[in-house]
Amino acid sequence: MKTRIAARILGRVQGVGFRPTVYRYATELGLAGFVRNDSQGVAIEVEGDEEVVGQFFSELTLHPPRQAQIADIKTQVLPAAGYNGFQVVESQPTESAQLAIPPDLALCDDCLREVRGSGDRRFRYAFTNCTNCGPRFTIIRDLPYDRARTSMADFTMCPACEHEYHEPRNRRFEAQPNACPVCGPNLVLQTAGGTGLTEKPVEAAQRLLQRGRIVAVKGLGGYHLACDAFSAEIVARLRSRKNRPGKPFAVMFRDLAELKRHCVVSEAEEAELLSAARPIVVLRRAANSMLARNISPDTDTIGAFLPYTPVHHLLLEAFPALVMTSANVTDEPIVSKEAELDRIFGGIADAALFHDREIVHKCDDSVIRVVNGQRQFLRRGRGYVPGALRIAEGSPAVLAVGGELKNTFCVVRDGQAYPSQHIGDLKDFQTLEYFQGEIDEWHRLLRTRPVVIAHDLHPEYLSTKYAQRLADVKLVGVQHHHAHIASVMAEHGLHEPVIGVALDGTGYGPDGTVWGGEFMVADREDFERVAHFKLYPLPGGDKAVEEPWRMATSVMFTEELPVHHRGAALIERMIAADFHVPLTSSAGRLFDAVGAILGLGNVANYEAEVAIRLEAAANPAITDSYSIEIMGRPRPWIVNFGPAIRELVAERKAGVPTSVIAAKFHNTVAAAVLQVCRYIRGQRGLNVVALSGGVFQNELLFKRTVELLQSRLFKVFTNTAVPVNDGGLALGQAAVALARTTASGRSKCA
Ligand code: ZN
Ligand code: ZN
Ligand code: FE
Hints:
Layout lengths: L1 E11 L5 H11 L3 E7 L2 E9 H13 L6 E10 L7 E4 L19 H8 L42 H8 L20 E5 L4 E2 L3 H10 L4 E4 L4 E6 L3 H11 L7 E4 L2 H5 L2 E2 L2 H8 L5 E6 L15 E5 L4 H6 L5 E6 L24 E5 L11 E5 L2 E6 L9 E2 L7 E3 L9 E4 L2 E4 L9 H17 L6 E5 L5 H8 L4 E5 L1 H13 L5 E11 L5 E9 L4 E7 L2 E2 L4 H5 L1 H11 L9 H10 L5 E2 L2 H11 L11 H9 L11 E3 L5 E4 L1 H12 L4 H27 L3 E5 L6 H13 L3 E4 L10 H13 L9
Parallel strand pairs: 2-5, 8-15, 10-13, 12-16, 19-22, 22-23, 24-31, 26-30, 31-32
Antiparallel strand pairs: 1-3, 1-4, 2-3, 6-7, 6-15, 8-9, 9-14, 10-14, 11-12, 12-13, 16-17, 18-21, 19-20, 20-21, 24-25, 25-26, 27-28, 29-30
Helix pairs in contact: 12-21, 14-15, 14-16, 16-17, 18-19, 19-20
Fe (iii) ion binds next to helix 12 and strand 24.
C-alpha cells in the first residue's frame, strides 16, 4: 500500500552529512520525495510502499551518519502527493525556531588518506575536509549553517569542488568548507619581521622547529605555539618567553602509537583521544617517556592530544610529538587573527604558519580527563561547543554571565542551555572584550534576546558588573556554590532537594566571609547552608591565593602551632589587627596551607600549584586519615580540621614521609565529606549527593570521596558536561534563574 510520511528530525543533524545519507537510502529503496535542512533540523518527505518507507526510517535511525545525533523524530502521515524521484531541496533561512550549530570536527580517515595519497588532487592539501570532518563553529558567521554564511564564503569553489558539493552521492555533498588547492585557503610561513613564504611553508616550519625555534601555528579556534617536546632547554625557553613558569603544556603526538610510548592510555581514554572532538586528555606519563620533564614539572601527567587538522598531520610527519600550547600572552585570550600576530612575534614566537581562512569564533582546545570511566571537563571548548543541553521544558530566554576566572557564559533558549566556550580571566581587558563580543554573537546566531540575566553575587566580578549594565532585563543573583551544585542538578535532570557538597577555591558569601568548603541542602531555586569548613583568616585576600605560605601561617597561628616562616610575624600582626584578613571556609585554601606546611612550595606560579603538588605527592595506597570534629549547634555545623592539622604537623616533625601525610590529609577531607553527608541524611532523609567546585579537580580527593559515599549507599552525581571549576558556574546560574522565574511554588529547602 502506498503511503507518504513527513518527518522532522531534531538533534545534531546539520553539517554532518545527513541529507546525502537520506538521499542515498531513499534512492536505494526507490522512494520519492525530498529532504531539506530547516531551522529546526532536517525535514523529510518520503512516498512509496508502506513497508519500504518503514524500512527507510529504520535504516536511517539504525545507521545515521557518523557525526549525527538524532534527538527526536516526529512523523506525520499525509495524503499521497505523487512525487517524482527524490530531491535534496535548498535550505530556507527562517528567523524563528531552534538552530543547531555543529561543533568543529577532527579530520576524518577518508580525508587523511587523500592528504597522504600522492595521486590525489588533495595530496598534502592543508584544508581538506568533507561532511564528516572539518571546521564548523569556528567559521560560522550566521545561521543556518551554509557556506555563504561562513568564512569559506571568501573562497569561490572551482568546478571540481563545485561538482562534489552538488553531487548527493559524493562525500562532499554540501560540505560547506569544501576546498582544494585550486580554490581554497593557502598556507603561509612568516618569520618575525620577514616576508611571507608560500612555497613549501610546512617544510620551512619543520626546519625552524628542528632548529629549536618556536613557531605559532594557526589551527581551528586560534593559534598554537609549537616547539620541540624532547628538549628541556627549548621548553624552558618557551616557558620564559610566555612567562609561564610551571603550568603544564599540552603535547600533540603524531599518532596513537607514538602517544602510547609516552602515556598510559585506558580504553575509555583512547576513545576520547580518537573522538571527532579530539580533546586534550590528561594522561599518566609513561615511566620511560623521554619527553622533556619540564612540560609538566609538578605532576606525572601529560596533557596529550592527536592531530585534528591536515596542517597538524603534515607538520607532525617530521616529529613524533610537539609541544602545542595556546598562543597567548599570560591571561589574554588565544590569538586568532593575523592582525594580532605582532603580540606574539618577537617576544614569543620566531615564526608563524598561518592561512587566509578567517577564524570567526576563537575557541580554545578542550581539556578532559577520564575518572571512574567518565569524562570530566577541565576546560570545555573546541569540539564540544556549541553543544546544548535541555534543562527545562520551554522557558524565558536567559543569559547567565558566569564567574570571573575561567569564565564561560550560558545562553538558554526554549529550555535548551548553550554553555559557551572557555572565555578566560575577565580581569584581562581583551578577554573582557572577547566575553562581550561572544555574548552578542551567540544571541545573534541563536536569534534570541535575554529577558533574565543570572550572575554571581560577587559585586566586584566583572561579569556581575556587565550584567548590571544591561537594560530591560530581570537580574537574578546566584550564590557561587549554589550555582556549582545547580550545575550538577541541571546536567542530570535533578529537581528534588539534594545534599550539595561544593569544595572550591573562593566564592562570595552573603555573610561577609569568603566561602569555599560548603555543604548545603539545595534544589534549583534555593539552598540552605548546613555545614561549612572551619573559618580561617585569609591574610591579604587574593594575595593569599598566590602565596600559600600566608594561608599556612594563618592556619598554624589559629591552631596555636609554632610558625617559622620569615613573613610569619607580619601575618600574625595582620590577623591580630584584623587588617585586610577576611575569614574563609575555602577548601582550596586548606589544601594550599597543608601543601605549604609540608614544604611543597610557598608561592603558586599558576592556580593551585601547591595543592597540585600535594596531590602529586600523596601515596594512594595509604588509607589512614587524621581526626576531625564536627561542631556547632544550631546549624551551620563547622567542620573543624584543627585536630588533623595538629596531628599532621606532629607527624612531619617525627619524620613521617610527605607521601604518607599528603595521602592521609586527602583521606581526611573525604572522610569529613562522608560524615557530614551522613548527618544530613540522618536529619533530612536525603540520599542524593551532588559534588562540584574546583577542588574536585583533585582526582585523588574526588575518587576517595565518591568511593566513601558510594560505600555508604549514597547516590553521587558530579559534572560531566561542564567543568566542576568556575567554567561550570554559568550553567548552574542559568538553572537557578530559570527555577526562580518559572517557580511553581516555594523552594522545598529554604
Ligand atoms: Zn573528511
Ligand atoms: Zn576546488
Ligand atoms: Fe567556584
